[in-house]
Amino acid sequence: MERDPGPEGARRALGRLLEAVLASRGQANAVFDILAVLQSEDHEETQEAVRACSRLFGALLERGELFVGRLPSEGSVMAGSQGATRKYKVWMRHRYHSCCNRLQELLAHPSFGVKELALSTLMKFVQLEGAHPLEKPKWDGYYLFPRQLFKAVVEGLLSPEDDCSLLLSRFQEYLEHDDIRYHTMQAATAVVGRVADGYPEVPLTFWNNAFTLLSAVSLPRQECSSSSFYVKHVELSRTWKVVHLKEHRKAFQLMWLGFLRHKLPLSLYKKVLVVMHDSILPHLAQPSLMIDFLTRAYDVGGAISLLALNGLFVLIHQHNLEYPDFYRKLYGLLDPSVFHVKYRARFFHLADLFLSSSHLPAYLVAAFAKRLSRLALTAPPEALLMVLPFICNLLRRHPACRVLVHRPLGPELDADPYDPEEEDPAKSRALESSLWELQALQRHYHPEVSQAASVINQALSMPEVSIAPLLDLTAFEVFERDLKKKGQESVPLEFIPTQGLLGRQDDLCAQHFTLS
Amino acid sequence: MGKARPAAARRKGPGAPAGAQGGRARPSPNPFEVKVNRQKFPVLGRKARHAVGQPGVSRARAVQKRTQTLLKEYKERDKSNVFTDKRFGEYSSNMSSEEKMMKRFALEQQRQHEKKSIYNLNEDEELTHYGQSLADVEKHNDIVDSDSDTEERGTLSAELTAAHFGGGGGLLRKTPLQQGGEEEKPRSRKELIEELIAKSKQEKRARQAQREGALELTEKLDQDWKEIQTLLTHRTPQSENRDKKEHPKPDVYDMMVRELGLERKAQPSNRMKTEEELAKEEQDRLQKLEAARLRRMRGEDEAGDARKPKHLSADDLNDGFVLDKDNRHLLSYTDGKMSIKEEQSREASDGESKEEQGEDPSEEDPEDSSDPEGHLDLESDAESEEDCGWPDREPRQAPGKRMTSNGHKAREPARTELPYTFAAPESYEELKSLLSGKTMEEQLVVVERIQTCNHPSLAVGNKAKLEKLFGFLLEYIGDLATDDPPDLRVIDKLVVQLYNLCQMFPESASNSITSVLRDAMHEMEGAVEARGRAAFPGLDVLVYLKITGTLFPASDFRHPVVTPALVCMSQLLTKCPVLSLQDVVKGLFVCCVFLDYVSLSRRFIPELINFLLGILYVATPNKHGHGYTLVHPFRTSGKNSELLVVSDQEDTATWQRRGLSLAWASGLKGQTKTEANHTRLSCLAVCLALVKHCMLLYGPLPSFQTIVRPLGALLTEHLADGSRPLELQELCRSALADVEKHEQCCRPLVCEKSKPLPLKLFTPRLVRVLEFGKKQGSSKEEQERKRLIHKHKREFKGAVREIRRDNQFLARMQLSETLERDAERKRKVKQLFNSLATQEGEWKALKRKKFKK
User: Fold this and answer.
1) Residue A98 lies in a domain
2) Does the global pTM surpass 0.90?
3) What ranges does the record list as Basic and acidic residues composition bias (chain B) (predicted)?
C-alpha cells in the first residue's frame, strides 16, 4: 500500500487503516498492515503503530469483538464450519495475541520512549481485559485477572540483559493498586524462580532489576477498607484472595523468600540488608522465617555482619529470637574498620541499644569498653568524639566497671593483662586491666578529643551523655565547628620567624624533603 | 466622625487637664474646702503625695468638664448633622494663632486671585498692610509712621493711660488697644477726650521734630569727622603701612623664636643600652613569648582564666607584673628550638642569664614592660638591634632584612630595572600580571616594594590594601604550586613575605588561610560523599598546610587556624587511598608536616601511626599478616598492596639515600624504572625515619606498647627479608630497639580525688535594702514586670471609676431633664385648667347675667 514517508505520513496512514478496520469487518485484513508497522526500525513509526494498536484493540475489547474462552488453533477454526462471526472473533483474538507478543518484545527496545509506551499500552490492555475478560468465569462472582498477559509484562520488566531501572520506576506507579501489587508479587516469584533455575550463571543485571522491583513493592501497614483496584469491578467480593492483606503478606513473603533463596552478589546482599529491618521484616507474614538468612549474613563478617545486626535486632526484640553467643559475635565485630565504614552511625546506635541493658555481666561490658578503647587508638577524631562518650556511658551504666578507670589500691603491672586476641569476652581479662588508652588519648592533637578523654580523670558524673547527635558526625562538621569557634579576639602568631617553605633546619620537612 | 473627636477628648480629659489645673492651685484655698488626710505616723524619706485635697473644687471641675464634653455629646446623641468649622487650621493645635491667620489670609488672597478673569493681564493685585491699601498708605506717609511708632513701642505714656483709664476701675482689664471702644463712652467726657487726642498728636509731632533734629546733628558730626580725619591720616600713615607689611612677611628670626618657644621639649631619652642589656631584653622578650606559647599549648587560657578569679596579693603593686614560674623551667626544655635560643643567649650574655633571671623584673625598661602586643614589635625590635650593631645578629635578624642582605648582590641588577613604586594590586589578576614573566629576584623585589610603598603608616587605606595582598599572595603561591613543574623556590622566598604580612595583620591572614583550607576540605568532602574516598589533593593544599604551621603557633591547645588545619590533615591521611608513588610522597609530606605541628606539644596522632603502618605494609614483600591490622584507607590485598616493594637487586645496590623532592608530589614523569625504584627506597627510608621519630615522641605515652606493637611486628618482618640496603636495615633495627627500650609500667588508673561537697548551711540570706518602697530581692525584669502590673491595675481602676462617674452624671442629667419636662407639663396643665376655669367662670357669669336679665 502507498503511504508518505516519515512518521507524519505513517500516522495518517495508520489512522486511515484504523478507521477502516473499526468501521467494517470486511476491512479486517488491514490489521496486518498495522502490525507490520510495529516491526519498523524507526522509533517514531513504531510509537505511532503502538498507539494505533492501543486504540484498535482497546476498541475491540470494549466492543467484545474478541473471542472469549479457550482459544482454539487458528487453522482448525478457519477450516471448520462455524459461523463467520465466530471465525472473525477467533481470528481477531489471534491478532491481538500476536500484538501483545510484539509489545512484550518492545519492552526491551533500545529507545526509552518506545519502552514506556509499550508498557503503558500493555497495562491498558490489562485493565481492559480485566474489565472484559477473555475467559469464561467458572462460576458467578469468580475473580478473573489477565494473569498470562500480566506475567508477560513482569517478565519483560525483569530482563536479564538490560538495566530496566527507569522502566521499573515508571511501573512503580501501577503498584499503588492492590490487585496489580498482588499479581506482581505472584508473577515476580514465578519469574525469579524460573530465571534463577534456568541460567547457569545468573547475570547481575537481572538481580538488580529484580531487587528494584521487589523493593518497590510496599505493603500498607494496616488493612484499609477502601482498596484501590486497577481493574474496575462492579462489586468486590470478600471471597477473593486479592482483597485480604493477609494474602498479600503471604505473597510478599513467598516473593522475598524465593528471592533470598538464591546466591546473591555481594553488593546486592548489602542492599537487601539495608532495607531489611525497615521495609521487609514488618510486612512478612512470619518474620521468623528470615532467621536463617540473617544469621547466615551475620556470620559472613565485616560490613555485612554490621548490616545484618539491624534485622537481627528486630527479630530478637519483637519476635523472641534466642541467639546463642550473640554478644560474643558482636564483640568479634569490633575491629579497626568499624570507625571507617559507611554504616558506623548505624552500628554504634545498635551497639548502644544492645549494651543498654543493666543486667549484662560486668566482665562483658568491661571487655567491650576495653576493646573499644583499644580501637580508639586508631580512630579518626570524628569517630573519637563519638566513641569516647560511648565508653564513658558504659562505665556510667555499670558501676562494677568503674575499676577500669579507678583502681586505688591496685598492684603495679608489667604488662596489660587484657588479651586482644581472645575471642571470648569472658576470657579476655578486661576487668583486670585499666583504660590506659584513654589516658594516651588525653594527649590527642584535637582539643575536643583531649577534653573528652580527660573526663575519666574525675569521678564520672551521673547523667549519661547522649551520643545520638554525635553518631553522624563527619570530619567536615568537626572542621567547620573548629572554624566557627572564636576563642580569643586576637589570633596568636608564631614568634619565631620563618626561614622558608620547609622551615628550620631541624624540622622534619627540611630533613626529609628538598625543594628541587 | 464628628462624634469621635469629642469622645477622644473626653477620654483624654480627666488625666491631663485636671492635673494641669491642679498644679495651678489657688494660692489661698478656702479653708472649709480643704480636706486633710491625716497620716498615722510620719515616715522619714517618704513623700506624702496626697496629704491635702480639695474635694469640692475637684468635683466642680469634674462636673464642668463633663458638661463640656459628655453633656454636649449626650445632647447631640440623636443628631446626624454636625457642624464642622472648615476654617484653615481650626482644630490643629500645633499652629500658633498668628500662623493660622497668615495662612488663612494667604488662602483668601489666592482664592480672590483665582477668581479674576484670566484674560485680564493688566490688573495687579492690590497690596495691603493691616487691611489698608498700600496705595492709600503711601499718600499719608506720616500717619502711618506715627501709627507704626505707637505699634512699635506697644505701651502708652502714663499720662495717656491715666487720662484714659483713670475714670473706672472696672475698665482696667480692657486691652489698651481698644481705643475705638473707649470712644463710645458717655457723652459727657467727649470734649475731654478730643482734647486728649489733640494733645497726643501734638506730642507726636514734637517727638518727630526732635528726631529729625538729632539726625541732622549726626550728619553734621560725620561731616566734621571727615574733615578732621584727613588731618589724622597725616600723622599715622607709616605705622599703618608697617603693620600691613609685617603680616605677609614675618621676620625669620621671630619665626624661629616662636617656633622654638612652641616646640615640645625633647623627652629625656633612655641612655644607650649596652650589648648585655640588649641581649637580656631580647632574651626576656623571647621568654615571655615562649611562656605564653606554653600556656596556650596546655590550654590553660581556656580553662583557667575564665574560672579562677585572679588572685591579688597584698604586695601587688598593680603594675600587671605576675611572677611566672614557668620562666625558670623554660630553658631546661631540651630538644628543638629552645636549646638553640639558649645557646644564643648564652653566647650573648656570657653566662649571666641565670643571675639576670633571678633579678627583680621590675627593673625592666619601660619599653619592654609596655609590651602587650608582643609580636607586633618584633620587626621594630629587630631593626633597632641592627642599628646598634649587635654582634650575634646573623640568626636573629628580621627575616625581610636578612633576605635582602643575602640576595643583595643577585638582586642588584633587578633593582635597577624595575620601577620603584608599585600600586597595591586590587585583584588577583593584577598581582599576577605584575609578577608573571619575572625572575625570582624580580618577583621578590616587586612584592617587597609593594609593601614599602603601601606601608600602613603612609596612608589611611593602605592597611586594607596590604590585607588584600596577603590573600592574593596566598592564591599566587597556590598557582605556583599547581604549575608543572611547581615553582617551589619562589614559594620558598614568598613564605617569608607572607610571614611579615601575617605579623602585621593577623586577623585577615587567618581569614584567608581558613578560607583556603575550607575550600580544600569542601572539595574533599564532596568526593567523600560521592564515592566514599577522595584523591590526594594537589601540591597547593599541602603547601598551604605547611605555611599554616609556619605562620601560626602549631603547639597551641586550641587555635582558630591550626586546629582546623590539623583536622584537614587527619582527613588527608584517613580518606585518601594511596594509589601511586606520587601519593606516597604526598602522604609522607603530610606526615612530616603533621609531626612538625606537634613537635613541641608532643601530641598523639593515631592517623599518622596508621598511615606509616600502611606505608610499611606496602613496602614489605613477603607478608605474614600477623600481629597487626591495617586500617582504612589501606587494604590487605589489591593491586596497590606491593607499591613500594623493590625486587631489583641492582637498583637496591646502587641506591643512595637522599631527601625526597617536593616536586615529585605534583608528578613523577620521565622516571626510569631504576629511578622509580630509588624513589621507592627513599620513601621507605623517610617512612622508617618517621617511625623512629614517632617512637621517640610517643615513648612516654601510657599505652605506648599497644600503639607501636603493629609497627614493631611489621619491622620484624622487614628485617626478616634481608634484601634491603644496609642503611635501611640499620634504621629498622634501631627503630625496633626503640620499641623494646621503652619499658612499660602499667600503673592502674586512679581518679583525681574530688573535693567533698560542703554541707548546706542554713544561715539567713542578707540582702541590702537599696531603696525603700520597692520590692526587694527580685531581678530587674521581675521588678519591671511587677511595676507594670501595678500600673495596669491602677489605670484599670481609674478607668472604671471614671466610667461610673460618667454614668452617674448622665443619670443626673436625665433626671433633671425628666423633672424639667414634668414641671413644664404641670405648668401647662395648670395653665389649661386656669383658662378653662376662667372660661367657665366667664360663661357662668354671662349666664348669670342673662339669667338676671
Assistant:
1) yes
2) no
3) 240-307, 338-356
